[in-house]
Amino acid sequence: MSTSNANFKNKCVTQVNCTFCDSLLCTRGMKAVLLADTEVELFSTDIPPNSGNVVGYHVVAPCKPCLLSCNNGHFWMFNSDAVSTLNRLDVTGLNLLLWGDLPELDDSENEESESPSEEECIR
């Protein structure tokens, strides 16, 4: 599923850090809710995070009802109490960076890359 889906394109992009060691987990985070219980707030990302601590979970095989429901296509979830977040800014440094403004991830991109692109480093 494309993360530029109309339902999510106006959501803020967040940097997600581990609250236990303050290490950077990802720069493509999004505030979300648990599909099974929308009262549960969490954060998610569409690429594997850098993590040495248990800060959430990875959906390995989503069920068909979840895939068909309104979802952001993210399969790495972070528990809100295990992470701290910071809203990222766009290239001007004046406005919040929105998901609709992020480039799509292409399938050939190395998901394990430790050096984010120049655009991903902008906060």
Automatic annotation (TrEMBL):
Gene Ontology cellular-component annotations: cytosol
Pfam families to which the protein is assigned, alphabetical: YPEH2ZP
Transmembrane segments: none
Top-level taxon: Eukaryota
InterPro entries named in the record: YPEH2ZP
Family: Belongs to the FAM72 family.
PANTHER family in the cross-refs: PROTEIN FAM72A-RELATED
Protein name as annotated: Protein FAM72A
Source organism: Liparis tanakae
Upper classification of the organism: Eukaryota, Metazoa, Chordata, Craniata, Vertebrata
